Amino acid sequence: MERNYLKRSATIYSKPASTNYIIPSMKMRILLSLFLAILAFNSKVLAQDNRVDTLSFSMKSSLLVIEGAINGNKALLAFDTGAYAGVLNSKQVAANNIKNTGKKNVRDSNNENKRMGRGKIATISIGSFAFENIESVIYDMPFLLCNDFYLLGGDVINRLNWKFDFINNLAFISKTPFVPSNDMKVLPVQFINNRHFTDLQVDGKMVRFLVDFGFSGVLDVPTSEINFAKIQNQKAKELMLLQSQTISMGLGSMSIGEQMNTYFADSISLGITTFKNIKVNVKDKTDKKIGIRFFRDNLSSIILNNTDKEYWLQQLEKPLKSDLGLDLDFFLIDGKLKIVGKSLSDNSSGKTLNVGDEIKAVNGKTAASFADVCSFINWRQEQAGNKDLTIETLKGEKINILKAKF
What we know:
Layout: H1 2-49, E1 52-58, E2 65-70, E3 73-79, E4 86-88, H2 90-95, E5 99-107, E6 113-126, E7 129-138, H3 142-147, E8 149-152, H4 154-157, E9 161-165, E10 170-174, E11 185-188, E12 190-192, E13 195-202, E14 205-212, E15 219-222, H5 229-237, E16 242-249, E17 254-270, E18 273-283, E19 289-291, H6 292-298, E20 299-305, E21 310-315, E22 328-333, E23 336-343, E24 359-362, E25 365-366, H7 373-383, E26 389-393, E27 398-401
Parallel strand pairs: 3-8, 4-7, 14-19, 15-18
Antiparallel strand pairs: 1-2, 1-10, 2-3, 2-6, 5-6, 6-7, 9-10, 9-20, 11-21, 12-13, 13-14, 13-17, 15-19, 16-17, 16-23, 17-18, 20-21, 22-23, 24-25, 24-26, 26-27
């Protein structure tokens, strides 16, 4: 019995020694499992951060538009680096259950101030990326309302990096910066109140410009900008300056018959990239801004590495040539077709008509042809690429309106 006890005791005594050996081994396996789990999680997070979504975009409206979602519902997003925040219209507010959070004063591109509503979007989705609790302005600008566009502003744009391929109309988006190709040139940018700015070099001077993807034109310069005055004077001497009256539509205002001078600058530079024969519009009520058409007409692709505050530019071998537009412009105002812009050149094909004149028809369409302003705006966009148009006056005279010339 004693031996059995001792044997049993020996066995009992030996178990703790065995346990002391096993416990560190189990700890090692647990720690290894935790390490592998953390590694797998980090790899997943890294893979998510490195993911690149590819979307198509359209420029039929003259703005760069991509598809996304507002509160889970499909939406068309108009890309605007010149806006500090997004803009909703009343239809989007109703359709997406947007809560109104008050009002604020907003200054538009015509330097007009207007009190507008504010609303909070629960989620904006672009590809696989989602952004929550986005404050936006609420206002029914006719152009945005009629196209049912949500104006995507810098508050969301700046949280991603973007690459636009203007040849294939493709947008690439990522949380991580894109690697530029060897033929791309860098352009430093600054963010001021979520808006993008860069330095443009003209006539040996550096001038700060707003990079405004929400502006459909090329290059706008205020009359007060002295660094462009020398070039304008020279172009006037060369008879290469067009004087005109124009229409300008801001978020909350419309300016009709504003005086404008247009010429083509021989060259300007952005960073280390030089561009030739660039269209310049000079007006009183405008900011210094570079529009989406500048980039579309002169680049095959552009990278907006917002993380690094750098753009990368890939030039077109053969840039698209801008023209001076048509000799007359028109709009539907208070149910009437009216002239809202015209070339003041002596050889203008529309010189017998004046801004403010009511007309009977444009390309056979009378004011009664349009159910509302939206049907007119959509039709007007379709006419934008025409080489000419036919105006019929109230007296029945038909005038063929041609492209403007110096």
